[in-house]
Amino acid sequence: MTTLLDVRHLSKKFVSGGGPFRPVRSMHAVNDVSFSVDTGRVVGVVGESGCGKSTLARLVLRLIEPSSGDVQFEDLDLLAQKPKPMRALRARMQMVFQDPYSAIDPRYTIRNAVTEPFQVQGVRQTASEADDKTAELLSMVGLSEQLAGSYPHQLSGGQKQRVGIARALALNPALLVLDEPTASLDVSVQAQIISLLEKLRDELNLTYIFISHDLSLVKYFCDEILVMYLGRVVEALPSTDAAARHPYTRTLLDSTFDPDPKLRRTIEPLGGEVPSPFDLPPGCAFAARCPVATEKCRTELPVLRADDGHPVACHHPL
Amino acid sequence: MTSAVWNKLSGFAPFRAFSSAIGIVAGGFLILLLLVAFFAPWITPFDVAAQNLANANAAPGWPHIMGTDEFGRDVFSRVLYGARTSLSVSATAIAISVSVGMLLGAAAGYFGGLFERAVMTVVDLTWSFPDILIALIFVAIIGPGLTSTTFAIAIAYLAQFTRLTRAQIVRLKSETFVEATINLGATPAHVVLRHLLPNALAPVIVVGMLAVGDGIVLEATLGFFGLGAQPPTPSWGAMMSSGTAQLFISPWVIIYPGVAVAATVIAVNLFGDELVRALDIRDRVRS
Fold it and tell me: Which CATH number belongs to the domain containing residue B159 in this structure?
């Protein structure tokens, strides 16, 4: 298996304030994140709101410039690319966005939206070639080609998300970053989109990074899971049935519901508060809420250690 | 009109401004005014510059239906011809203002940072003076005449369009479709020209249309001060200015151009409101 994407020590610091009356405040949205993705795998990224999942997605695609770190994509140093080759390289790595309602320009017809990738990449097409390509892409994502002349507001959320996927697939990418692609859709439509994504992965040999806060969905869909907490990866589960070793992952896993009433159980709620990302504690960021935290956890930062192919950043792994 | 033609036209959003009585009357008046302005040299019953001192200050009647001024020139002909002067100066000025303003506003909104600060500081500086003062200063510097009036009006309204466009661009820039397009590998030019500006256009066009009304008033004001069109070119403002001297002898000299200014500005504003309604951009026009 070859490595498609290799991320090393990636960090993004956002700075706000500055000026005579406001002190400079900085926030590490993503802090020293390393992971790699092999061709054909589906890697899930989970964590609560504000943990840096979406920022990580944008850093990996270089939609935001990282503060430090390295990204190797198809053995190319992504961050060293000049603007022009970078734009060409973007064809190989695409993204499906969380909000399908604003992901298509309201003034574009569906045909224009799915042929825009070719236009942007300088691929010349005659009108009939564009028609054929539109029909092909729409049928690939399960849409009728009669929708080609429609505007986004005439489509349902699920249809729009399918158009978003068609647009992302137009340029034959190797990597697809899915940023909560089902979060703003109805549950029944979510299932359709997920099965479409599974079908496309098999047909086109795609590699996915799947970002979500829905843990049961991630467990169903992904091969391996990165768990993030306040900008850091706290645990990398090598498979979906691996036992949680970080107390935070355990709590997350415990919070998913089983649809079987016989499996009813009480959930232990987490105490404490999430620290402000502007003012992180010196030790483990989870220490304030952790049931097993000790003095060491509050003063010394645990590093992500991979002793046995199951990396975890905890002084007292379970 | 057959319903098929109507359906096709009403599919074009700006045309729906004509779907109310106010829209038809105001829009119809403006179309008539445009025709008059365009064909003025051929439809005026008398030569606009021909003096006839024997018939000066004649009351409205036949053949001078709006009377004559202090030189015996036909007021009706001069009001018709004045539409040409007023509309061309104001429309040209606003067109310059809109083009430059959109360019500056789009660049400021898209690139942000120091460039945005610099542009917006200069633009806000011009906005902190009354329009008429800016126009006066400008005309005072380069001298009176129609060209300087045009540029003075363009500068006076530049701030409005720069600010409006910038606000639209900043709002649009955070839309997901912009990020999605960049992620496809689009150049900044593609993003600005194919996504940001087309989406920002509608409110700017409507505000521009309304500003043509203000431009006519400003042109008339400059003309009234003798800084706009120079004699014998007829301009509504200049006509009112020369009429003030004979206000109590021959009030028609000042009343008819005044009515023309008022009617035009009212029609522009009413039609502009209908256009805002037709394009459904009420919340985006005021910013």
Answer: 1.10.3720.10
The CATH topology of domain A3-299 is Rossmann fold (3.40.50)
Q: Cβ of B186 under 8 Å from any chain A Cβ?
A: yes
CB pair distance less than 8 Å for B185 and A88: yes
In a domain, B58, yes or no: no
Cβ of residue B185 closer than 8 Å to a chain A Cβ: yes
pTM of the model: 0.80
pLDDT confidence of B287, banded at 50, 70, 90? very low
- Per-residue pLDDT tens for B38-76? 998 888 888 887 788 888 777 787 888 888 888 888 889
Rounded average pLDDT over B31-41? 91
Taking one residue from A and the other from B, the number of pairs with CB-CB distance under 8 angstroms is 56
**What are B109's strand-pairing partners?**
none
pLDDT attached to residue A16: 81
Give the model confidence (pLDDT) of B178-228 as tens digits. Answer: 999 999 999 998 999 899 998 888 888 888 988 988 898 898 888 888 888
In degrees rounded to 5, what are phi and psi of residue B128? -80, -10
Q: Are B240 and B224 in contact (CB under 8 A)?
A: yes
Rounded Cα distance between A233 and A241, Å, is: 18
Q: Where are the domains of chain A?
A: 3-299
Q: Compute the mean pLDDT over every residue in chain B, rounded to the nearest whole number.
A: 86
pLDDT of A59 > 50? The answer is: yes
| Chain B residues close to A116, C-beta within 8 Å | 181, 184
Q: Across the interface, do B180 and A121 touch by the CB < 8 Å criterion?
A: no
> Does the distance separating the beta carbons of B183 and A63 come in below 8 Å?
yes
d(CA A63, CA B191): 14
Residue indicated by tokens 């706009």:
B228
Domain-embedded: residue B22 = yes
Domain boundaries, position B264: 15-38+67-285
Q: How many percent of chain B have pLDDT more than 70?
A: 93
Between chains, do B199 and A95 touch, taking CB under 8 Å as contact? no
In-domain check, residue B170: yes
Tell me how crowded residue B75 is: count the other CB atoms within 10 A of its CB: 28
User: In this structure, are strands A224-229 and A207-212 parallel, antiparallel, or unpaired?
Assistant: unpaired
Q: What is the pLDDT of residue A87?
A: 94
Alpha helices in chain A, H assignment, sequence order? 53-60, 83-89, 110-120, 127-140, 157-169, 187-204, 215-221, 247-254, 295-299
Domain count, chain B: 1
Residues of A within 8 A of B187 (CB-CB) are 87, 120
B174 touches chain A (CB under 8 A): no
Tokens found for residue A277: 């990302």
B1-33: b (≥16 Cβ within 10 Å) or e? eeeeeeeeeeeeeebbbbebeebeebbebbeeb
A106/B180 Cβ within 8 A: no
Which of A58, A81, A116, A169 has the most B C-beta neighbours within 10 Å, making it the best mutation to test the interface with B? A116
B239 assigned to some structural domain? yes
Tell which residue, A67, A62, A36, has the closest CA to residue A223: A36
According to the model, what pLDDT value does residue B11 have?
62
**Which DSSP string corresponds to A162-206?**
HHHHHHHHTT--SEEEEESTTTTS-HHHHHHHHHHHHHHHHHHT-
Candidates B174, B181, B192, B196: best to mutate against A (most CBs of A within 10 A) is B181
